[in-house]
């Protein structure tokens, strides 16, 4: 029974690979190890070095799984694995010539391979598993595909995913072709390595070099092969010596068949940070020092001419700064950049003996270089245009129709790690994978298919997003909709942690990314960099809408509790992998949030003299200490110190990572009972007659609100209290208790709600109440009562008002309803969706503040700007809502802060209420403005349109596409009652 269950689990894990480990053989089965009988791996010594490397990796993987050694030779056995590249393997070429091996779909293709089972392919071989590649990398990918089939994760070494032990290894193979890849060049950029990768290599993994050297790069290149990648941009900060400083590096790259490129500020494979000495070589200025610069280009081109490389054309300033030009006007910059590229291409031809058009080259219009390109700069058409995101995950520009015809094509340079303004995010992987999918699928749609590079910092802890990025680049056909990401993550989790745990792990990570999308952990101090600022005031409200600070604390506590529960059920051989891939990021994000959220509560409660001020301060300190403890474990104890120095909990020592400063309590010496209500900054003061802070917000029968009351201690000691509702339909979550310094519970949060089956109905009238005083609804619509909170020497009377009309129109109404002067809408919950003539609205799951957004697709659809054409031809969303008031309303629309997909257009939608003329709102921001900074820190942009609601009752909000690609997250119709909050209030949906 166990064996059958295990077989089912593995089939699920490898479903996407169309293979499985099985026990009963059929014609599609191939025996690698069974009953101590071991096959061999046969390769041709003439084949590329990477084929031998991949064959040995596979042999090692088989040994790790079965404990049986397997030989890599040029001989064949009666049962063997034969691997080779067309034209470089005698045996493969013989099988092709004998028509025993069909390579018609492989030959001449880029990185394409097949895995086939052949009976009696050559004399002395009864059965062979034949891996044939169109080129050297394809053959290596094919060999490592077998590693996946026997259950070895690509992260076996980098994330300590220890393979399950098996006595037998029998794989079932479907006759299929793998490739050609969706994107030609696919890889990673090792960047901002100062606090992790470089220190780990120099002090731990490669101390003999004292740097990131060939030993480290060999491990990086093995990972890339396992992930079917082919390109690296090496580490390039000044703490690391340049890649070509160590001669062995380029040979190791070639041995592993990895193509070497460089970033936007490293032209012609040169690391300007370390290789350019201004004192001896002059200024890094092409306008007055071009001859010296060209010598550097010539030297590097000559050195790399015999290796696969991608040359970055043009130039920028040193250290990721703008290019220095004598004349700072744009026309002068454009002309100089064009001259730079002309000279660079001449050097390429001189040093390689090839035409420039035959060599891979890229031009990266990044920051000020994009401005030059947008102002008419001419770039030879065989050079690939590599577009970039804005450093925060939003691609700034894509190829237009003419640019898509370029022979050089286009590519994308994308970030999941960044150092710079408005704030770094160098510690955890907090980029939402569905956002990355959405942006990369958009780029793919616009023909950016020549090169994809992911800036992944130190690799760890970016493992999942790296694999997703590279899997999309390998085969984009599996990712036509957002659910493809969830399917991918669930298969990834099943492979790493077992099929049984995969759904829980996937749901955990989706919630982790949802919370990080609302605000990345590294942004929780509300500070900025360049220049570095101290912590700012949080935008999270502690008094309205259930207390956003406490809500976020509870959400992260639930996340951490779930992670602990899953960890208890992870197999022992995968515990370390779970810690690295899931637990540490979740723990780190949760506790960095706790540190700041409890600090904000510490500051807030101090203003009211609560003794709990010290409790919240202690919780903030404990969160900081937890991060210290877990980071120390990661570095010093995990895998016996294998990863020592890889994980820093405070990159660049920014204020967000610092030990929190807490405020001491200013409460008096005498113990007193205090009360604070939702929606009020100040505490209840029963010494003031007619205090306005002693009434809870109105309870709405159609939204079933709950509101909090904080019962707290002022001064040292203990106080018993009890709550006495004045009506049986008032429910309080706790009717009595004690607040005490001794017990460590100096305050309690109570929740007040209404038993709607018992509350009397308000008087009905023909018209709804007028005005915007939502605290004091006219008596005919409300029921009034109170709750008394009583201690030994104090009584607080808290007013309760219930809005409980019985409108016949709402009996069977399906839609949204006004609550305290606003209507809150989650956009995925539309009442109707109408397709346009060219586009339609589509829900993206796993993105946005609520977990879903709605996007106008396809992205290539033309913009519709004429108001009549919008109404007639644009895709439409409709939301039915009901208001109890009427008058002026502001429709606030929150969108994901993407950039325009069409040059010269915007990121727009149009809105109207009922039959009013549509109002166009545009979410586009230009450059690196303050508005852009706010948007990327919040992953949201909010724009508004003024509308008139001419009567109380039923209405319809209409939302049309104007520009394709616009992604809407939430909508708030504000009739004057919304109080400022970070996120929109809870959805007011019937």
Automatic annotation (TrEMBL):
* Every Gylcosyl hydrolase 115 C-terminal domain range: 815-987
**Per UniProt, what is one GO molecular function of this protein?**
hydrolase activity
GO annotation, biological process: carbohydrate metabolic process
Could you name the domain of life of the organism this protein comes from? Answer: Bacteria
| SUPFAM superfamilies xrefs | beta-N-acetylhexosaminidase-like domain
Query: Which Pfam families does the entry link to?
Result: GH115_C (PF17829), Glyco_hydro_115 (PF15979)
InterPro entries the UniProt entry points to: GH115, GH115_C, GH115_sf, Hex-like_dom2
Question: By what name is this protein known?
Answer: Gylcosyl hydrolase 115 C-terminal domain-containing protein
Q: Which organism is it from?
A: Labilibaculum euxinus
């Amino acid at each position: 029974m166990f064996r059958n269950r295990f077989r089912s689990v593995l089939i699920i894990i490898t479903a996407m690979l169309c293979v499985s480990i099985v026990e009963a053989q059929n014609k599609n089965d191939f025996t690698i190890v069974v009953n101590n009988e071991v096959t061999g791996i046969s390769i041709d010594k003439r084949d590329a070095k990477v084929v031998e490397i991949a064959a040995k990796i596979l042999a090692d993987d088989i040994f790790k799984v079965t404990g049986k050694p397997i030989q890599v030779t040029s001989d064949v056995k009666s049962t063997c694995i034969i691997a080779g590249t067309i034209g470089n393997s005698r045996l493969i070429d013989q099988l092709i010539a004998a028509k025993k091996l069909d390579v018609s779909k492989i030959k001449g293709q880029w990185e394409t391979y097949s895995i086939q089972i052949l009976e009696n392919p050559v004399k002395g071989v009864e059965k062979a598993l034949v891996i044939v590649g169109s080129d050297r990398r394809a053959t290596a990918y094919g060999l490592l595909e077998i590693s996946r089939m026997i259950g070895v994760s690509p992260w076996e070494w980098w994330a300590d995913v220890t393979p399950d032990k098996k006595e037998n290894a029998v794989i079932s193979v479907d006759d299929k072709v793998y490739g050609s890849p969706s994107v030609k060049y696919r890889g990673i950029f090792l960047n901002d390595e100062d606090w992790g990768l470089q220190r780990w290599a120099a002090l731990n993994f490669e101390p003999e070099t004292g740097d990131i050297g060939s030993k480290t790069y060999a491990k990086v290149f093995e990972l890339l092969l396992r992930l079917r990648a082919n390109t690296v941009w090496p580490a390039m900060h000044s703490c690391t010596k340049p890649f070509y400083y160590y001669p062995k590096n380029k040979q190791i790259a070639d041995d592993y068949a990895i193509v070497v490129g460089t970033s936007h500020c490293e032209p012609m494979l040169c690391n300007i940070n370390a290789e350019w000495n201004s004192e001896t070589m002059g200024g890094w200025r092409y306008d007055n020092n071009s001859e010296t610069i060209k010598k550097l280009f010539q030297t590097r081109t000559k050195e790399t001419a015999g290796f696969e490389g991608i040359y970055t054309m043009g130039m920028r300033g040193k250290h990721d700064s703008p290019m220095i030009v004598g004349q700072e006007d744009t026309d002068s910059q454009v002309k100089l950049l064009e001259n730079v590229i002309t000279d660079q291409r001449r050097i390429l031809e001189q040093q390689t003996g090839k035409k420039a058009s035959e060599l891979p080259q890229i031009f990266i219009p990044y920051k000020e270089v994009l401005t030059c390109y947008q102002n008419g700069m001419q770039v030879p058409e065989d050079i690939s245009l590599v577009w970039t995101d804005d450093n925060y995950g939003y691609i700034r520009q894509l190829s237009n129709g003419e640019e898509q015809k370029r022979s050089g094509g286009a590519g994308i340079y994308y970030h999941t790690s960044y150092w710079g303004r408005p704030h770094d995010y160098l510690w955890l992987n907090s980029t939402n994978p569905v956002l990355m999918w959405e942006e990369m699928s958009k780029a793919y749609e616009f023909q950016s298919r020549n090169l994809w590079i992911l800036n992944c910092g130190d690799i760890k802890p970016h493992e999942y997003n790296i694999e997703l990025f590279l899997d999309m680049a390998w085969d984009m056909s599996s990712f036509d909709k957002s659910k493809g990401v969830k399917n991918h993550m669930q298969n990834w989790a099943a492979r790493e942690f077992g099929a049984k745990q995969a759904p829980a792990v996937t749901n955990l990570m989706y919630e982790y990314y949802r919370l990080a999308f609302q605000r990345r952990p590294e942004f929780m101090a509300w500070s900025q960099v360049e220049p570095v600022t101290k912590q700012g005031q949080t935008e999270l409200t502690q008094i309205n809408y259930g207390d956003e600070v406490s809500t976020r604390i509870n959400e992260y506590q639930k996340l951490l509790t779930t992670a602990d529960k899953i960890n208890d059920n992870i197999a022992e051989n995968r515990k370390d992998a779970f810690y690295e891939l899931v637990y540490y990021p979740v723990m780190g994000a949760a506790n960095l949030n706790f540190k700041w959220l409890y600090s904000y509560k510490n500051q807030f409660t101090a203003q009211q003299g609560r003794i709990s001020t010290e409790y919240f301060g202690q919780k903030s300190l404990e969160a900081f200490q937890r991060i210290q403890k877990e980071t120390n474990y990661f570095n010093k104890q995990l895998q016996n110190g294998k990863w020592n120095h890889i994980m820093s909990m405070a990159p660049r020592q920014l204020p967000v990572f610092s030990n929190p400063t807490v405020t001491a309590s200013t409460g008096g010496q005498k113990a007193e009972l205090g009360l604070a209500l939702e929606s009020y900054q100040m505490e209840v003061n029963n010494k003031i007659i007619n205090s306005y802070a002693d009434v809870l917000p109105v309870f709405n029968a159609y939204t079933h609100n709950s509101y909090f009351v904080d019962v707290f201690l002022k001064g040292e000691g203990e106080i018993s209290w009890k709550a006495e509702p004045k009506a049986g339909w008032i429910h309080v979550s706790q009717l009595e208790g004690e607040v005490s310094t001794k017990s460590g519970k100096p305050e309690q949060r109570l929740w007040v709600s209404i038993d709607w089956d018992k509350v009397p109905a308000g008087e009905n009238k023909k018209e709804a109440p007028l005005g915007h005083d939502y605290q004091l609804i006219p008596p005919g619509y409300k029921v009034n009562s109170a709750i008394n909170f009583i201690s030994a020497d104090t009584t607080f009377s808290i007013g309760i008002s219930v809005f409980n009309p019985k409108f016949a129109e709402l009996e069977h109404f399906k839609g949204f309803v006004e609550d305290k002067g606003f209507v809150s809408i989650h956009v995925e919950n539309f009442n109707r969706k109408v397709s346009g003539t060219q586009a339609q609205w589509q829900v993206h799951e796993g993105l946005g503040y609520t977990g879903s957004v709605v996007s106008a697709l396809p992205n290539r659809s033309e913009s519709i700007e004429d108001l009549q054409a919008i109404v007639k031809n644009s895709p439409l969303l409709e939301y039915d809502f009901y208001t109890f008031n009427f008058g002026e309303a502001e429709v606030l629309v929150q969108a994901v802060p993407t950039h325009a997909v069409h040059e010269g257009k915007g990121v727009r939608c149009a809105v109207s209420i009922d039959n009013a003329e549509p109002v166009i709102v545009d979410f586009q921001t230009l450059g690196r403005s303050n508005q852009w900074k706010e948007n990327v820190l919040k992953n949201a942009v909010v724009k508004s349109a003024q509308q008139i609601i001419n009567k109380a009752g039923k209405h319809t909000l209409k939302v049309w596409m104007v520009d394709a690609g616009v992604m809407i997250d939430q909508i708030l119709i504000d009739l004057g009652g919304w109080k400022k909050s970070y996120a929109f209030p809870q959805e007011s949906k019937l």
